[in-house]
Design goal:
Blueprint: H1 4-16, H2 22-34, H3 47-64, H4 71-87, H5 89-92, H6 103-123, H7 126-145, H8 152-155, H9 164-170, H10 174-186, H11 192-205, H12 211-227, H13 231-250, H14 253-256, H15 260-271, H16 281-284, H17 287-304, H18 321-325, H19 332-340, H20 362-373, H21 379-393, H22 398-409, H23 423-440
Length: 446
């Protein structure tokens, strides 16, 4: 990063002023970092030096913020939000402070910033954007804090000895209920706040002590989707689907397995049949919702399937260039070592796993939905569906996996309403086949 000295000087200036100079350096700071949008990995070498001073400053600003003054928090969050946009939240959040004592305070500051939002929206100036960015960064910070390996009853100061039995009957603390209520409200807003709210909800609800809260959220999302119509549903639906997809990604299988069939029934009703004359318009007209629905379909399927890889999969050897170059015909020891690490051939691999498990009946319908979505008009939906097909096929017995491969290649056959092959169907078949080749590693079956 050739502008590192300048960036470090700008950050030092902001830290020395306790965040007051953040607005004056924002334009130059953003211009420098935006230049690395296409290759953000170039920032990794100096990422800690950029994020750590700002995150420490954010913590200090959060500790002294009041309901009437959150300016310092907003200014620092704007700088962090630029970095999150360029490099991605998964990389940046690793350098955020993660002390358990900060959980309640950060949630309180988030409430302060949220209460300021309506008045800022009425003015229509840049302060409204700063508030939305601050809320997104604070929720990202909370998503790390809720991973603390302590029971939330210990961290919640509002839980007293007199009321502990009442909270125990509910199954989760008032602190968790406040976080859930905030995130559920953010799910109907577009942009980064919805993404961060989904992440925070997923990490909170997949905690071992939040099983009751997870059941509560599943009931809420069904009622919310059923009662929301019109433009509001366009924003709420992607938020709910993204939260569910992250829950099935981050949660433990024993916790999610009882919930997978119900989630699949709701998702199947939401997506409708391929040949339905009255598809769900909130999904059919929403590209983001269809993409997230494909993510959720494949993760529900992976939850239903046994947590093991099929025995017929390609076994990749450990790549060691020095060992390969050192193998000579007059060195039998090296040759035997190389043979031991060579990849297994397809005919040498047993077509069945050592333990044969029954495939759930829902898997056929799940793969059918994914194969049908491989011909979607939008590339992001086709890509997500193709990846889901390959991942599910990798957990199936060989005979069923070959049927999935045949179904993917069948997209190239003109039939029914597809009398002429479009570029979409060509791309769909090629994408599915490529993903299966990468994940399964079975060139002989492709």
């Amino acid at each position: 990063m050739e502008e590192f000295d300048e960036i470090r000087g700008l950050i030092s200036r902001v830290v020395a002023s306790n965040g007051k100079d953040a607005r004056s350096v924002y334009d130059r700071y953003k211009a420098i970092l935006t230049k690395y949008q296409e290759q953000p990995q170039l920032l990794d070498g100096c990422l800690e030096a950029i994020v750590q001073p700002l995150s420490v400053l954010l913590r200090q600003a959060a500790m002294r913020s009041t309901a009437q003054d959150t300016t310092s928090v907003q200014n620092v969050c704007r700088l962090l939000h630029v970095l999150i946009t360029v490099r991605g939240y998964k990389t940046v959040v690793r350098f955020f402070p993660h002390e358990a004592a900060d959980l309640e305070r950060v949630l309180q500051v988030l409430g302060y910033v949220r209460d300021t939002q309506p008045s800022a929206d009425s003015t229509g100036d840049s302060s409204s954007i700063a508030l939305w960015e601050a809320q997104a960064v604070l929720m990202l910070w909370l998503s790390i804090l809720v991973l603390m390996p302590f029971d939330l009853f210990i961290l919640d100061s509002s839980v007293t000895s007199d009321a502990s039995s009442q909270h125990a009957q509910r199954g989760f603390t008032p602190l968790a209920a406040r976080i859930m209520a905030l995130c559920q409200d953010y799910l109907k807003h577009p942009g980064a706040v919805r993404e961060m709210a989904a992440l925070l909800l997923a990490r909170l609800l997949t905690r071992p002590d939040m099983a009751a809260a997870l059941q509560d959220f599943l009931r809420w999302q069904q009622q919310a989707l059923a009662s929301t119509h019109g433009p509001a549903a366009v924003f709420l639906l992607p938020g709910v689907l993204q939260t569910l997809a992250l829950i099935f990604k981050l949660g433990r299988r024993e916790q999610l397995l009882p919930l997978a069939p119900k989630t699949w029934l709701q998702l199947a009703e939401l997506l409708g049949d391929e040949g339905s004359t009255t598809p769900n318009t909130s999904v059919s007209r929403n590209t983001l919702a269809r993409k997230l629905a494909m993510k959720l379909v494949q993760r529900v399927g992976l939850t239903l399937l046994p947590p093991q890889l099929a025995g017929w999969r390609y076994v990749r050897s450990a790549a060691d260039l020095g060992r390969n170059l050192g193998v000579r015909s007059d060195c039998p020891d090296q040759c035997s070592t190389a043979v031991d690490h060579a990849p297994a051939k397809a005919e040498d691999i047993s077509p069945q796993s050592p333990t044969v498990h029954e495939v759930p009946e829902q898997i056929e319908d799940l793969i059918g939905i994914l194969l049908a979505s491989c011909s979607d008009k939008d590339t992001v939906v086709r890509w997500s569906a193709a990846k889901g097909v390959a991942r599910l096929a990798g957990c199936l017995p060989l005979e069923l996996a070959e049927e999935v491969v045949d179904g993917a290649l069948g997209l190239l056959s003109p039939s029914g309403r597809y009398l002429l092959l479009s570029s979409t169907r060509w791309h769909a078949s090629a994408t599915v086949t490529a993903h299966q080749h990468v994940i399964l590693g079975r060139p002989d079956s492709l």
